[in-house]
Design a protein that fits this description.
This protein is an alpha+beta fold and about 150 residues long. Helix content is about 25%, strand content about 25%. It has one domain (about 20-135).
């Protein structure tokens, strides 16, 4: 069984720095079901994303909304300073926590992928917060305008 990788929830109870894409997902699926979008437009995952889904994806409940198979997983990528331009695919337990401790802003993207039909959709984007570091609003308030 694969390890569980989760983007840490906000500790303050607010959702600043976190964006959920469920409404965009629902809208896109509705457009596909109405025939506005073609299968090739919704099942277009890059081969590297499908490979990452197969190798390190975390299985989630539910079937693929397109092909109805139980091959749905989530893959997490992190972007930030001193990481490759294409980001880092999270493959080890504790890796998100280690990245959050690094200086600079790191952003995690969680993508839902079907290993069978290549459906993919961005689920969530979250700013990783360093333990003890000020939140995004506090940091912005402290920076001089210029």
């Amino acid at each position: 069984m694969s390890a569980v990788f989760r983007v840490p929830p906000t500790t303050t109870g607010n959702s600043e720095g976190h964006v959920d894409y469920r409404l965009a997902r629902a809208s896109m699926l509705a457009s596909y079901r109405r025939g506005v979008l073609d299968l090739s437009e919704v099942c277009d995952a890059h081969p590297e994303l499908v490979r990452a889904a197969r190798e390190v994806g975390r299985r989630i409940q539910g079937d693929c909304p397109i092909c109805q198979r139980v091959r749905l997983v989530q893959v997490t990528y992190v972007f930030g300073p001193r990481l490759p331009k294409h980001g880092r695919c999270i493959s080890l337990r504790g890796e998100l926590a280690r990245l959050a401790k690094r200086p600079g802003t790191h952003v995690a993207f969680v993508v839902e992928v079907c290993q069978a039909c290549s459906w993919n959709h961005l689920v969530r984007r979250s700013t990783l917060e360093r333990p003890g570091a000020p939140g995004p609003a506090e940091t912005a308030a402290e920076e001089p305008n210029g």
